[in-house]
Amino acid sequence: TPEENARKLVEILKGEGGAGRDLVAMNSGAAIYVSGKVPTLRAGCDMAEDALSSGLALNTLQRLVEFSGNPARLERFL
Length: 78
Fold this sequence. Notes:
Helix content is 76%, strand content 0%.
């Protein structure tokens, strides 16, 4: 369900999620690499890992939800 997916996403962005977190880091790293922001796929994956570990990724999601005008939608998953 969409609610289960949202829960899983927030868990991953909070640093939990095991294999799911690894998959998100790899996919995000590939996106960072193809965008040209880093010279290698490994550097993209490292950047994505850093964003997940530091809380930057979760903070970015929180800002996007606040911008949408309904932060309560995310708060129930935090």
